[in-house]
Amino acid sequence: MTHELLTTLRPLLTAEASAEAHASGAERGDLEQTVWLRLLERLETTGPPADPQRWVRRAVRSEARRCRRRARVEQPYAVEPADDRGFGPEQRALAAAGRRELLAAVRRLPGRCPGLVAALLSPHDLTYREIAGELGISQGNLGPERSRCLGCLRRLLTPEVAAR
After folding, report:
1. Is residue 24 pLDDT above 90, yes or no?
2. Are 39 and 83 in contact (CB under 8 A)?
3. Binning pLDDT at 50, 70 and 90, where does residue 77 land?
4. Phi and psi angles of residue 27, each rounded to the nearest 5 degrees, phi first
5. Which of 27, 80, 92, 116 shows the greatest Cβ crowding within 10 Å of its Cβ?
6. Residues 6+ apart with CB under 8 A from 117
């Protein structure tokens, strides 16, 4: 009986939802789905409605009114929501641990490398001229020195990365 009722009501529900969707600002499929859900809940609790066609029409209109009210109350964000790429507490903790490991490896570098790599990692985004002035070396030597230091850092970190 339930299957027959649903089959019988499907064309009516589709037509009613199509008629109400545009004015309510809802998608036709969303209206249909909500009304189907309400009907199934009703069938489970109180049984089928006495006049199913009338019930479907009223349910669609009721849901369309609810959608219109919701559309009036809801306001769009003034700006896009915060970045939601999954930087939750776990990702932030892992990133912080990675930064601590990197800085510990930088401190173990030989010679002027700790100062040079720390300057390259600085949040102040220093220029080569500023880094060279800070370290007391010529700007021309900064590139080759940087390459040597990053090579040392790579060799230092390779066993740690492989150990994991």
Report:
1. no
2. no
3. confident
4. -80, 145
5. 116
6. 106, 109, 149, 150, 153
Rounded to the nearest 5 degrees, what angle is found at the Cα of 12, between the Cα atoms of 9 and 16? 135
Q: Which tokens is 107 given? A: 């401190």
Q: What is the mean pLDDT of residues 10-14?
A: 91
Q: What is the C-alpha to C-alpha distance for residues 38 and 32, in angstroms, rounded to an integer?
A: 10
Show the tokens assigned to 95.
């990133």
**pTM for the whole thing?**
0.46
With beta carbons less than 8 A apart as the criterion, state whether 156 and 105 touch: yes
Q: Dihedral sign for Cα 89, 90, 94, 95, please.
A: negative
Q: What is the per-residue pLDDT for 82?
A: 64
For the chain, the straight-line distance linking the first and the last C-alpha, in angstroms and rounded, comes to 61
